[in-house]
Amino acid sequence: MMKRSRFTQEQIIGVLKEHQAGATAPDVCRKHGISEATFYAWRSKYGGMEVSDARKLKSLEDENARLKKLLAESLLDVSTLREMLAKNF
Questions:
Q1: Looking at CB atoms within 10 Å, which of 2, 9, 47, 60 has the fewest?
Q2: What is d(CA 15, CA 80) in angstroms, rounded to the nearest whole number?
Q3: Is 71 helix (H, G, I), strand (E, B) or coil?
Q4: How far is CA 40 from CA 43, 57, 66, 70, in A?
Q5: DSSP structural state of residue 33
Q6: What is the DSSP letter of 1?
């Protein structure tokens, strides 16, 4: 499972907007206590987004995770049924 961020998506977008407004990346990182690597990772994921876009992204990521879990469970069920059938014949 992924580590939870200390920052909400809204806060991350706020940090990125500070940079867009003219603050340097190192200054923004120092102010918020993040590494430059984190800053650039956030920028690649959230750059140019508004808060509403980030909320949509989060809901799609959650739905995708739920669907992947359902798929994995159904594949496991199919595998179990195949094993049971193989033993009966």
A1: 2
A2: 49
A3: helix
A4: 5, 18, 28, 33
A5: T
A6: -
Structure token digits, residue 26: 């190192």
Average pLDDT taken over every residue of the chain? 92
In this predicted model, what pLDDT tens digit does every residue of 13-27 receive, in sequence order? 999 999 999 999 999
What distance in Å separates the CA atoms of residue 68 and residue 88, rounded to the nearest whole number? Answer: 31
Task: Locate 30 and state its tokens.
Answer: 């120092």
Amino acid, res. 16: L
Measured distance CA(67)–CA(81) in Å, rounded:
21
Q: How many CB atoms lie within 10 A of CB 29?
A: 19
Q: Cβ-count burial of 89 within 10 angstroms (0-12 exposed, 13-18 middle, 19+ buried)?
A: exposed
Residue 9 near residue 58, CB atoms below 8 Å: yes
User: What pTM value is reported for the model?
Assistant: 0.65
